[in-house]
Amino acid sequence: MNLYSKIKISRGSDKSSFKEKVFHQIGALCYRFTNKKVQFLLITSRRSKRWIIPKGWKVDEMSNRKSVALEAWEEAGVQGWVSKRSVGTYYYRKRTGKNDFLTCAVKVFGLEVKARKKKFPEHGQRKLTWVEATEAIEIVTEPELKTLIKKFSAQIEKINIL
Questions:
Q1: What is the pLDDT of residues 78-124, one digit of tens each?
Q2: Average pLDDT over all residues of the chain
Q3: Per residue in 112-131, pLDDT tens?
Q4: Number of domains in the chain
Q5: Residue 34 near residue 162, CB atoms below 8 Å
Q6: Pairing label, strands 22-34, 78-95
Q7: What is the model's pLDDT at position 19?
Q8: Cα 85 from Cα 25, distance rounded (Å)
Q9: 3-state SS record for the chain
Q10: pLDDT of 27-75, one tens digit each?
Q11: The domain spanning residue 23 has which CATH number?
């Protein structure tokens, strides 16, 4: 049985609450199992240096899963198995200028990390850290991303796959 067939996570806030156009991105909730615990890979954003997950614009010619795998590779140097279904969506405001922002909806897919390379396209541009769910929830700033991490971690533990 597939891990994701039992995981059900809400899709985040109702996007109708946003009065402006919402831009769609894809993201990778990268995780691994270690010592019977799940750990999540967080990276820093290039501008503000806040802790985030690998994410970006979907490549038109690629499926969501392939775009997610590409973002995870480019931003964190990781490769692995991408879930067939999204595990949820979160919203954030992307700074595009001093006082300019875009509202982005990030459709998140789980990515079980199987390999990490030392050299990758954005190597040296970001910090990377592996943390357990409780710490990840503390250090990410987007409330809906915190919720996604919490629910995803709880679902994994609930179905006793560790």
A1: 999 999 999 999 999 988 888 888 899 999 999 999 999 999 999 99
A2: 87
A3: 999 999 999 999 999 999 99
A4: 1
A5: no
A6: unpaired
A7: 59
A8: 15
A9: CCHHHCCCCCCCCCHHHCCCCEEEEEEEEEEEEECCEEEEEEEECCCCCCEECCEECCCCCCCHHHHHHHHHHHHHCEEEEEEEEEEEEEEEEEECCCCCEEEEEEEEEEEEEEEECCCCCCCCCCCEEEEEHHHHHHHECCHHHHHHHHHHHHHHHHCCCC
A10: 999 999 888 789 999 999 998 899 999 999 999 999 999 999 999 999 9
A11: 3.90.79.10
The residue assigned the tokens 């991105």 is 25
Q: Does residue 86 contact residue 4 with C-beta atoms inside 8 Å?
A: no
pTM for the whole thing?
0.84
CA gyration radius, the chain: 15
For residue 25, the enclosing domain spans: 3-158
Residue carrying the six token digits 């919490």: 150
B/e letters for 66-86, b = 16+ CB within 10 Å, e = fewer, are: ebbbbbbbebbbbbbebbeeb
